[in-house]
Design brief:
With 289 residues, the chain is α+β, with helices and mostly antiparallel strands. 25% of the residues lie in helices and 21% in strands. A hairpin with a 5-residue loop joins β11 and β12. α1 packs antiparallel against α2. The longest helix has 20 residues. It is globular and about 80 Å long. The model has no long low-confidence stretch (mean pLDDT 95). Bound molecules: benzoic acid and fe (iii) ion (FE). Benzoic acid (BEZ) binds next to α4.
């Protein structure tokens, strides 16, 4: 095809990639090209703007390494992560909702017994967390693997602290025979997502803040059930209505009451004030094949 113009360029690219062998790849690439070209036509993208866009993506790539994933952050702030998560986990009513994974999960977190402390030295007011893991039919799920991770009271995950050589604020436990679980940690606080790079500049230029409401991350896995990746948010806290990465679901908001010094529900004597959180998870059975 020659004499390509601003309209026929779309057809030319679709024709050029018509031989894509993988049907799904063809569907995705054809749609991507159509939408990309329509976008450029709709906003009448200028050469200067296109060049700025290339420079932005280049900086996103350059700041990304094995500790920092700016592309995921970009996807998060654009709402793409939430969209893909939501359309990939259309669960029946009654199941716990999924939300964004975020960049701070680490596989192989320290294993703890029920009642153990995942804070492992992280600073913050103590928090006792308990609840259950059940299937949609109400059946208790014993032995479910429960990964938990959170930031400290300065809003930092352990992996963001260069001075730390061990896990803090993360751990893995298993639900007991009756499906219950309980562990100790510190209370979660709001924190800002990394905003010293190109994604932070994008937020600034679009009049947005980088804050996330206080939350605790969970990943729960059990044979015969869909893996659940979610958070539990702290009711009444800041940024629930304006989470920078659009992760909040009202069903995931729970009370984390603060108690004066005394004896915690698991019998631990507490000399200082502490918090408690109770949250029950409901997993979706995997459809029989
Ligand atoms: C998080 O909750 O850990 C998170 C999620 C998305 C972007 C940045 C952080
Ligand atoms: Fe988080």
């Amino acid at each position: 095809m020659i004499d390509i113009d601003e309209r026929s360029i779309t057809r030319a690219v679709l024709k050029a990639q018509a031989g894509t062998g993988n049907a799904r790849l063809k569907e995705v690439m054809d749609s991507l090209v159509r939408h990309l070209h329509d976008f450029a036509r709709e906003v009448q993208l200028t050469e200067a703007e296109w060049s700025l866009g290339i420079d932005f993506l280049t900086r996103v790539g350059k700041i990304t390494d094995d500790k920092r994933q700016e592309f995921i952050l970009l996807s998060d702030v654009l709402g793409l992560s939430t969209l893909v998560t939501a359309q990939s986990h259309r669960r029946p009513a009654g199941c716990t909702e999924a939300t964004v994974f975020g960049p701070f999960f680490v596989s192989g977190a320290p294993e703890i017994e029920n009642g153990g402390d995942i804070a492992n030295g992280a600073c913050g007011e103590p928090c006792f967390v308990r609840g259950s893991v059940r299937g949609l039919g109400g059946e208790p799920i014993a032995g479910a693997s429960i990964d938990v991770w959170q930031s400290d009271d300065e809003g930092c995950y352990d992996v963001q602290r260069a001075d730390l050589d061990h896990a803090q604020g993360r751990g893995r436990l298993r639900s007991l025979a009756d499906g219950s679980y309980h562990f100790r940690s510190i209370v979660a606080v709001p924190y800002s997502i990394p905003h010293d790079g190109p994604v932070g500049q994008l937020l600034q230029h679009t009049g947005r803040h980088p804050w996330r409401p206080a939350h605790l991350h969970f990943m729960i896995q059990a044979p015969g059930y869909e893996t659940l990746i979610t958070h539990v948010f702290r009711s009444g806290g800041e940024y629930l209505e304006s989470d920078a990465v659009f992760g909040v679901r009202s069903t995931l908001i729970a009370d984390w009451p603060r108690h004066e010094a005394g004896v915690a529900a698991d019998g631990t004597p507490m000399a200082t004030p502490y918090h408690s959180l109770t949250y029950d998870f409901v997993l979706n059975p995997v459809a029989p094949r």
